[in-house]
Amino acid sequence: MRAFVGLGSNLGDREAHLGSALRGLPGVVAVSRLYETEPVGGPAGQGLYLNLVVELDTELGPRGLLEVARGLEEAAGRERGVRDGPRTLDVDVLLVGDEVVDDDDLVVPHPRMFERRFVVEPLAELAPELVAPGVREGAGGKVQVVGRLERY
Asked: Active-site residues: which are they?
């Protein structure tokens, strides 16, 4: 099944956290370029994020991908305390085939992905057919391409 996940990090060795997460994802097909972005929400004074989107070909459904995501975040030492606070690793399940989930702990498609330029730009890079015309212009935030993740 074709799936997409978003990865982000703004604490510690951001590239190492992202690379480790990539190695732990099942069925990686493609990886977007790296985008550096300002934090959205949360406490003031956070560092910049590195973000990317990954395309997967996996048999895992949304719940299985969420379990993988939480395991990767835990392995990276993510602490959940402050909403939208700084994090070593954030893994968001964006899309999983045609699946729709609306649970307390998981919503797929991700409910805010088309509002966030740090998701829209890398997703459009990998799957332009999934990003409707005008969505890129309407997405909030500034992004800057900073290259590719070389260490994974």
From this structure: 78, 87, 90, 92
